[in-house]
Design goal:
There is one protein chain. The chain is of the alpha+beta class. Helices cover 48% and strands 15% of the residues. It has 13 helices and ten strands. Strands 1-4-5-8 form a four-stranded mixed beta sheet. Strands 2-3-7-6 form a four-stranded antiparallel beta sheet, with no helix packed on it. Strands 9-10 form a two-stranded antiparallel sheet. α5 runs antiparallel to α9, α9 packs antiparallel against α10 and α9 packs parallel to α11. The structure holds flavin-adenine dinucleotide (FAD). Flavin-adenine dinucleotide binds next to β1 and α13.
Length: 386
């Protein structure tokens, strides 16, 4: 149902119209072939939607985070998946907030125009996982460049990006340091890095996500590509987390709306025992419950956005929004499969694809347990558990 009171109604309408050209069949084919949605990402870029959050002085639309949220939610609500390109909206914030004026002038206008893609974000490593401070990739300064050695895992979109935000250790860990100190952010120009010290290996996953392992073997990165100050990289990455959590949360809200819409239509149309299955409370109640949960999660997303745009630090709200929205979409996905009976498992209905896609957000970019740990320690004042 159309809701004209929704924020950014015009943006939502325009994005929904664009998405209508990318049907279920488009996404199904990509999923089957494990292929990247190049045409969709290009169309989105050409229409300027991926540059929505880049300030006008650098060629973007200069819109607030809530506009970015409206764009990503609509993509997911339409049955598509913004996972192929959403990172550009939040990784560019690292450059915007902590990059030098020269770096911003050099890269942001080209990112805004689509000439350069900043889609890759290299933080997670195989041995350290969620424990970011324990990462092992090093970047040693040698004259006018850093020499990078190590490995990243789950670096999504690396094969479809020109630039990567890379977190590496520039100062060896000593006993007097916190393990989150001594890390730095480098902007890696992947066009030059591939086969010159950087190798990318795709990882096949349960959903089509273009994620990879990236290996660094004495990769040279010019010193001028250091973002901000050396050793403060963890803080810079952390400063972008609220936006990232909120944007992932809205994608989950979009997914939940898609599942609820599909479930409602199917329950109304499908007749068994001579009547619509949706007439049975055993079928309609789980859908109504999923709707109520989605609306509650959506309120937390709105609260996180309100605080973020008021200049506050909504760490708790952004994390809760992500967790509640991921739970709401996961539950709605489950209900949608159940409502569709056997057809929920059939590829042509898109339900099983979206079910696989939305499952990711229980784990990435941060898992539910780590959000609960954050709330326990920082909001409720209980002892740190790890
Ligand atoms: C498809 C996909 C795309 C991704 N894209 C990117 C990307 O582009 N860039 C990037 O840097 N990373 C990316 N990630 C990585 C993602 O952020 C991590 O997978 C996630 O943070 C969890 O880390 P891990 O996989 O190492 O799990 P682990 O850290 O090994 O955790 C495994 C499980 O143990 C639990 N656990 C761990 N420690 C604790 C604790 N102290 N208390 C309670 N429970 C705990 C976790 O909750 C989790 O359920 C991606 C991951 C996936 C799957």
């Amino acid at each position: 149902m159309e809701n004209t009171s929704e924020t950014y109604y015009d943006i939502r309408q325009a994005v929904a119209k664009l998405c209508a050209d990318f049907s279920g069949e488009y996404w199904r084919k990509l999923d089957r072939e494990a292929a990247y949605p190049s045409e969709f990402v290009k169309t989105l870029t050409d229409a300027g939607w991926l540059a929505a959050l880049i300030p006008e002085e650098f060629g973007g639309a200069g819109l607030p985070l809530s506009a970015g949220a409206a764009i990503l939610e609509e993509i997911h609500k339409s049955g598509g998946n913004a996972g192929a390109c959403h990172a550009q909206m939040y990784t560019m914030g690292t450059l915007l907030r902590h990059g030098s004026e020269k770096q911003k002038q050099q890269y942001l206008p080209k990112i805004a125009s689509g000439e350069l893609r900043l889609q890759a974000f290299g933080v997670t490593e195989p041995s350290s996982g969620t424990d970011t401070g324990a990462l092992k990739t090093t970047a040693k300064l040698n004259g006018d460049h850093y020499v990078v050695k190590g490995q990243k895992i789950w670096t999504s979109r690396a094969e479809h990006s020109d630039l990567m935000i890379l977190l590496a250790r520039t100062c060896p860990l000593s006993e007097s340091m916190k393990k989150t100190e001594g890390l730095s952010v480098l902007l890696v120009d992947m066009r030059h890095a591939i086969n010159n010290g950087m190798t990318i290996r795709p990882i096949k996953t349960m959903m089509n996500h273009a994620t990879t392992e990236v290996f660094f073997d004495n990769l040279k990165v010019p010193k001028e590509n250091l973002v901000g100050d050396e050793g403060k990289g963890f803080k810079y990455i952390l400063s972008g987390m609220n936006a990232e959590r909120i944007l992932i949360a809205v994608e989950c809200i979009g997914d939940a709306k898609w599942f609820i819409d599909k479930s409602t239509s199917y329950a109304t149309e499908r007749e068994v025992f001579g009547r619509a299955i949706g007439q049975n409370q055993g079928v309609q109640f789980p859908i109504a419950q999923a709707y109520a949960n989605m609306r509650a999660a959506e309120l937390m997303v709105k609260e996180a956005l309100r605080l973020y745009e008021a200049g506050a630090n909504p760490g708790a709200e952004a994390n809760m929004a992500k967790m509640l929205a991921a739970d709401a979409s996961n539950e709605a996905a489950n209900v949608c499969i159940q409502t569709h009976g056997g057809f929920g498992f059939a590829e042509e209905y898109d339900v099983e694809r979206k079910f696989r896609e939305t499952r990711l957000y229980q784990v990435a970019p941060i898992s539910t347990n780590l959000i609960l740990s954050y709330l326990s320690e920082h909001i409720l004042g209980m002892p740190r558990s790890y």
